[in-house]
Write a structure and sequence with these properties.
By secondary structure, the chain is an alpha/beta fold. The protein has one domain: Glutaredoxin. Helix content is 40%, strand content 23%.
């Protein structure tokens, strides 16, 4: 089963350097909707292992990172391709809806990779 990595400002380059799309959940520990969404992402991280990476950012302790990406509410999932945000989902979303979004991101990812150079080598 895949794992959701904890992302911080000190290891953020790992998100940006990924060779597969990265789904990053911005959350806070006190957010009830975040506590519902995280287990769904944990399950899906296993299903999408090898095709997509998963990370989680505590927006309350990493506020500069969250503000830098325009996070206005939690939970928010931002998808990154070649270091660039390519999609986002705000609020609690069902497992079925997330699967459809992930498939769409994977299709966009092919186009993103072919049209982008990585931000970090």
């Amino acid at each position: 089963m895949a794992k959701i990595e904890r992302a911080t400002s000190s290891n953020w380059k790992e998100v940006l350097k990924s060779e597969v799309p990265v789904a990053v959940e911005f959350y806070t520990p006190t957010c009830p909707f975040c506590r519902q969404l995280t287990p769904i992402l944990e399950k899906l991280s296993g299903e999408y292992a090898g095709r997509m990476k998963f990370a989680i950012v505590d927006a309350s302790s990493e506020s500069d990172l969250a503000m830098g990406y325009g996070i206005m509410g939690v939970p928010t999932i931002k998808f990154f391709c070649a270091g660039r945000p390519i999609a986002e989902v705000v609020g609690l979303t069902s497992e079925e809806e997330l699967r459809a979004i992930f498939e769409d991101v994977l299709k966009k990812y092919k186009k993103c990779v072919s049209e982008s150079s990585p931000l970090y080598a």
